[in-house]
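COURSE: Structural Biology Practicum
ASSIGNMENT: Worksheet 4, Part C
STUDENT ID: 0417
INSTRUCTIONS: Below are two proteins. For each, the amino acid sequence is given first, followed by its C-alpha cell string. Answer the questions at the end about the second protein only.

PROTEIN I
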Amino acid sequence: TGIVNFLLSVVLLVVVGEALRIRFGVSQCRSAANQGASSSVGESKSGWTGTITAAFILGVGIWMSGAFRSAVTDSRPIGLARLPSNVGGYFVARSEWVDFYHDPNTEEALTRVYLTTTGIPIELFIGYHGSASGRARLQSPSRSLPDKWKSVWVKSATMEAAGGEGLDVTWMLTRRDDAMRVVLYWYESEGQAFSGEIQYRLAWLKARIVKAKRGMAVVRIATPLLSGEKIKEAQQRLKRFASHLYLQLGKILEAG
C-alpha cells in the first residue's frame, strides 16, 4: 500500500543518512588535526559533502519509491483448481458446511470440502496473490475469522509433512456458540513454508523489493470438533490431510 511504501522509504532513508553521517563524521575527526590554517577550505569541502550526501539520499528515495510502485508481477492464475480431488485418501464431496473462510485480498482462491473415509468434513482454503502486487497482504487466518466465530487460543508448532519435511504451522481453536472447530494454517513463499506473522511480513517485503517471480499463498484447513472428541484427535485428522496436501500444493506453486 502507499502508506507502507512511504514509511519504508522514510525508515531506509534515515538509516542511509545516519550511516553516511557517521562515516563522514569519523573522517572529519581523523582529518581535524590537518585542517589548521586551511579551515576555510575545510568548511567549503564540508559544505560540498553535505550537498552530495543530501542529493544521494534523495536519489535513493526516488529510486526506492519507483521500485515499490513498479514491483508488480504477472498476476495470471496459477491454476489452484488443478489440486486433485483425491488428496491422500480424502475426497472432495458435497457437505453442509457453513461459514466458509474468505480472504478478499487474494488474486486467486480455492475453497473445497474434503471428507474423511468416515465422512468427517475438512474445509480447505488456499489464497494466492502475486508476491509484489499492489494489493494488500493476504489476511491472517488468526485475525480474520468467519462471521461470529471467535478464537479460543492460537499456538505455533512444527509437524512432519509427507516425505519427512518439517512444516511450521499455526493451530487455532475457534468457537461459535456451542460449535467448535480446529484450524491449521501456514504461508508459502518461494518454496518455503512458515507460520509466523512476522516471517510472513518480512517475506512479503522481500518479494516487493527483489520483485520475486513467484507469488505468496496462505493455506487454511479446518474441521469440526465432534461431540465427545478430544482436540488432539481433530488435530491428527488435520495433520494427516495437511501432510499430503503440502506435497500436492507444492507442485502447483512451483509450476506457477
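PROTEIN II
(use this one for the questions)
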Amino acid sequence: LEQKKARQFIPLGLLYGLLPQIRTPFLYISVASVGIISVLSYSIEKHKKHIKRVIVTMFILLYLLPFTYSFYGNYKWYGQLAPLIVESQFAPNLFSSLYIDRILPYPEYFPYPDDVLTLYGEFSHTYTPQERKLMAQKYLNLALMKIKRDPSKFLWSRLLKMRYVWEKHVLFTYVAEKRDAAITFSVYWGNIAILTAAVFGFVSWYRRTSNAAERGVKKWFSLLLGLWIAYLTFMGTISPTEERYTLPLYPIVFLFA
C-alpha cells in the first residue's frame, strides 16, 4: 500500500479464491474484499489505464481460478452450477449454533448433541436440489422456533460467541492436546496481549503523518480491515463457534502488533 504498487495485490486474488474452498462462509467476505481491492488497485497504481485494467483483470481471474473445480464437480456429479458445495450452509449452521456454544479439542465437547447429529445425518441423505431445499427450510424453521421460545437467551449467547471466536486456548486447533494449565494460560493471555498490541499498533500507524493520497489509501485499508473484523465476529454468532475462524486475520494482527 505505501509503495503504491498495485501489481503486488495480484497474488492476493488466488489467496482470496482459496479461502471459500477452506470454509464456505468466506465466500461473501472474499467477494467484497476483491471488489474493494480492485477499486484500491485502480486508484493507487500510477501507470496508464490499460495497465491498471490488466492488473485488476489478472487479480480477478486468479480469484476465480479455484472455483473452476467446484463448478465442474458440482455440474458433473449433481447437475448444478454452484461455486461451492450444493448444500445450504446457513440453516444447518444456525441450528447447530443453538445447541453448541463453542468447540474446543477436548473430550467434553464431543460427541455433538443428538439434535445436531440428527441434522448431519439427514442432510447427508439429500440427493436432489428440491430435497436439499426442503431440508434447509425444515431446520431453518426449527431454529427460528427455538429462538422465539427464548430470544433473550439467544441474544446473550450471540454476545458470548463474539468473544469466544477471538479467544485462543490451544496452539493446534485439530490436536487434542494434553491439558496443561501453564500452556493454556500462556496461549490465552498471550493472544489477548497480541490483540491489544495490534489495536495500539494500528492506531499509531493510522495517525502517522501522511499526505492526502496516503490518507486515502489508509481509509480504504481500514474499511477492508473493519469489514473483515465485523464479518468474522458475526460469522461466529451463527455457527458452532470455533476459535480457528478468526485465524485468517492473524497475519494482519501480527503485522500491527
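ANSWER KEY EXCERPT:
Q1: The chain has eleven helices and no strands.
Q2: The longest helix spans residues 181-207.
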